Amino acid sequence: MALTHEEREQFLAEPHVAALAVASAEKGRAPLTVPIWYQYAPGGDLWIMTGRDSRKGRLIAGAGRFSLMVDRVTPTVRYVSVEGPVVSTLPATREQLVEMASRYLRPEKVDAYVDFAWREHGEQVVISMQPRHWLSSDLGEV
Fold this sequence. Notes:
Helix content is 30%, strand content 37%. It contains four helices and seven strands. Strands 1, 2, 3, 4, 5, 6 and 7 form a seven-stranded antiparallel sheet that branches.
């Protein structure tokens, strides 16, 4: 059964690891699909953080849009998939890295991760997407 507007937005706002998909510009290649952390608040734009020169960053810049899919298997099988245009690409801030890491890591791990990532991951950008097309379902218990 499809989720209501409120259910799908709330589910997407939970800290799932998403599967990001973006069209590949390479002949004979399928879309790039990779796991990624993301941030979303109901009613707003969704954002991810990635290396400015990463493959996914370059492909998103070229395509101008991407998709994310999040799911769970308990207590029921449920998923939300969202696709839309990129509305901004801006240099990432340390505060955004802290926000993202705090969403996914235990509090005692955040500072060490942020210090490492800020030092070692190279220049990062925040890519914001406006959710336009949604697919969702709760398949019940399987």
